[in-house]
Amino acid sequence: MTDRRLRTDEYPLRRILLVWLVVSILLIATAAQNIFRGQFPDPDDVLRLVQVRDLLAGQEWFDLKQHRIDPTGSVPMHWSRLVDLPLVLIIGGLSPLLGQTMAEQVGVILVPLLAMLATMLFVGRMAWRLFDVETAGLACLVVGFLPLLVFQFQPLRIDHHGWQICAVVAAMWAIAGRDTWRGGALAGFAMSAGVTISLELIPVAAIFAAVLGLRWLRDRNSRFGLVGFLQMLALGLAGLFLLTRGVGDLALYCDAITLPHIGFFLIVALGATTLALAPPLPWFAIVVGLGVSGAAGLAFFGAGSPGCLRTPFGELDPLVYDYWYVNVLEGRPLWDQSALVYPQLIQIAAGFATGLHLCLQARDWKRGWWTDYLLVFGGTILLGLLVWRSMAFASVLATVPLGYLLQRGLHRLRSTESAGAKVGIVAVLLLVLLPSAPVVAGQKLASPVGNSAIKGPLATSSCDLFSSAAKLSALEAGTIFAPLDIGPALIQRSHHAVVATGHHRAEDAMRDVIAGYMAAPDETLDIIRKHDARYVVICTDILEPNLYADRGGEGNFSSLLVKGRAPNWLEPVVLDTPGTFKVWRVVDTR
């Protein structure tokens, strides 16, 4: 096989850019209505924009608090400034030219697409190195057919998940390099950025470390791959911590990188470096040595942050856990998901099966490469089964083998003369690329039309949340007692604050909101007084307030509001909004 580094005329950059442009246009067209209405895919995207606005308005870089959530206490967000950075650069850079509103519009459309472009560049580079330019372009095209990737890269999806996906595929590309230390170091830096963004990537970093460790056991000359990975992971985490957190807040949070985390990775890196520089050792001694390094790092972490040996959500208030956490389905395992997601597993299975076929057919370095690829791929599949959102990492690793499968299918389609064979090839390709199409079509045909009594997500609500929330600015600024899911839109579109949103560091305020909506009105008023809230706002046709109404006691606060029977200490506020968007002013009559 000719070294592709010597065939620069074949580099697929133009094809990757063309595919990205086509997929981007399709995503923008598909999301046009949401873009026009300013309706973000998820409340986290809304709050991300609020954070960026506050930063551009003068909030300090190291001040991660959201001062309009539970303003009596102010909530320190667990999000990283790394994700804010591209939004700040684009919105801040374009605001003098276009005005802030238009600059924000450009930013929230462009940033997810840029994350997709970065991801495609890594995917295309890997596919080109393994196959050819055509397969590289098709592998990038496959990105537009994988639902979990499309969701994370769609316009307005400005939260951190797209950049996490990019970090995973960047690390996969990096360990394909021929310089073992450099490849490991680049992968370690990619993982340090991903872990800084969210601790959700720590298991993925462990998978990469395990694969690089197996390389060491297979070939001692590959030992510096793991060393470079661990060194740059530790140093990258330390540097990014200083860049994004500084030294003003050294609190031991369990949901973001802290000094004990960094200490753990430094100890493990030091242990691996020592073993790599030692004289040749038998494989079991290497395994024991790495295990001892890991145990020492874990002991340091446990001593420095003992409360974080459990999961960040393990100690949630029972009310918050039952009524918020278990309803965040993307963070739950596969078996808690709707059956509608199951067809997506066809794509993952097809990608893994194709990768296995390529591994069995490969020789020399390619056999080792595909073995490593499948180990990482398989690890992310297992992780995705436990946390469905993480199946996006498996999805991005499915792109390269699926690109090859698509290329071979198209080649067979062009070369065969049998009509039956052509039909069969097209059917298989459609099944792999669009496995959910029959399910979605059947759901649309079976769903009732015009049934406004159905209580569902914000996307299907008639309360026109984002436009309605903007009209709240006509009222004097104050704190709003509102369900968790609509809180981000209220603070993004108006000058008001809210008691809580669905972000677990505001656990006490979240509990007060949930308990308040499920309590008797007099008890709710006590909670409202506690947070000095001046208004109550709900959308009556979304799931959250109706869940509280159904599960609370008879005559609970939420059920009264949904039925239009507000207590006498609430005064209706008339705004030009749909009837399902209800606003009251608190008038304490006691």
Automatic annotation (TrEMBL):
The keyword NADP does not apply. Keywords: Membrane, Transmembrane, Transmembrane helix. The chain crosses the membrane at residues 79-99, 106-127, 133-151, 163-181, 187-212, 224-244, 250-271, 283-303, 341-360, 372-399. The keyword tRNA-binding does not apply. This is AcrB/AcrD/AcrF family protein.
